[in-house]
Amino acid sequence: MNLGNERNGFAKKAAPTGKTVTASRLKLLLATLSLALLIVPTSYILTFVFYAFGTKSTTLMDTASKVLYLTEPNTALEELEFDMDFSLFSMDLSFDQYKQVGSEQYPVRHYDLHFVFDDLVDMDVSSDLERTPPKYPTQTNQWLVHPAQGVPEFNSEQEWQVLEGLPDETVVEAYVSFNDLYKVTDIRKELQGTDVLWAAIYTGTEDEMLSTDGDVVSPIGYPVQPDQTYWSPFRDSMSHEETFLQLLKEIEPYEDLSVEVSSHKNLELKERIAFIEENGFAAYGAVISGPKQEVGALKDLELIRYMKLGEVKLWNWTE
Fold first, then answer.
1. CA-based angle 229:230:234, to the nearest 5?
2. Where does the record place the Sigma factor regulator C-terminal domain (predicted)?
3. Which of 7, 87, 227, 256 has the most C-beta neighbours closer than 10 Å?
4. Domain-located, residue 152
5. Which residues fall within 8 angstroms of residue 139, CB to CB, at 6 or more apart?
6. Which of 26, 53, 80 corresponds to the end of one domain?
């Protein structure tokens, strides 16, 4: 009898009460919640540390902007118009791209880039361009053509006819290819009445648009006009040629990111940098802008081999 009571008493002690179970669950819940509350801010701190001291957000932003100046003819990014947002282990970067047509700058593209750490995992580009350059240039569909290349895919004579048919009260952007290699200073003297905006630079690959490995390469070059925009890498530049070369060296370590951001998908920077350093700077084409009549008057110039018409706007020209 006593033994039974002892067994019953032991059984009662071994079985937890409802209050004990509830307290244990509450402790577990509070511990889990505390851990979660600790992990989230810690993760955000690590995110900010990564973008501040690891792969800096400014490095990603600089690379994205510099490659567009060098690979997208006649484009610029406006100062103080970069929007940067951070979330868990990621960063969103958005900005607008502009073109000069005549004497004014016009918004032409909007970029939204999403990075996870330093990997660009998503990019959305919306365009307001009326005449869009090839997204993935090949050997034959370039808008700027080296003199050693054959006939391009566009019909240059037809482009001149389109230009001639435009109203006199318009300003235009035009892509002109030369019959030889020229210094930019000489090009500016020849193309009187227009603004020479961007020069395509010969890097030893443009004869066939192929690298030594046989990969199709894309045109690269630099803006010719002075640019005092705060964000421009050419701001206060004493020599746009030397700045151009320096920028190529700066983005070379981030070449994978560069080709993802730009529509030009093969840059071969190491090979082309070495060629420029050995041979100097010479242009085989340029982007110009000016009144329709002034651009049309260049048709008979010996140095112009081909012309591709770009954007067209209503008159805004100022001398």
1. 65
2. 163-311
3. 227
4. yes
5. 149, 208, 209, 210, 216
6. 53
- Sign of the torsion formed by the C-alpha atoms of 251, 205, 203 and 70: negative
Residue owning tokens 């560069």: 258
- Domain range for 249 is 133-314
Tokens 């443009």 belong to residue:
206
The residue among 11, 99, 35, 73 whose CA lies nearest residue 200 is 73
CA distances from residue 58 to 72, 110, 270, 276 in whole angstroms, order as listed? 21, 19, 23, 27
Q: Tell me whether residue 20 is in a domain.
A: yes
Measured CA to CA in angstroms, residue 82 lies from 97, 113, 317 at distances of: 10, 11, 29
* Run of H or E residues at 92: strand 90-101
Global confidence as pTM:
0.84
Whether the CB-CB separation of 167 and 290 falls below 8 Å is answered with no
List Cβ neighbours of 210 (8 Å cut-off, separation of 6 or more).
Answer: 139, 216, 217
Tell whether 168 and 274 lie within a shared domain. Answer: yes
pLDDT score recorded for residue 84: 86
Quote the crossing angle between the two packed helices 269-279 and 240-251, to the nearest 10°: 150
Q: What is the pLDDT of residues 203-239, one digit of tens each?
A: 999 999 998 888 889 899 999 998 887 778 998 899 9
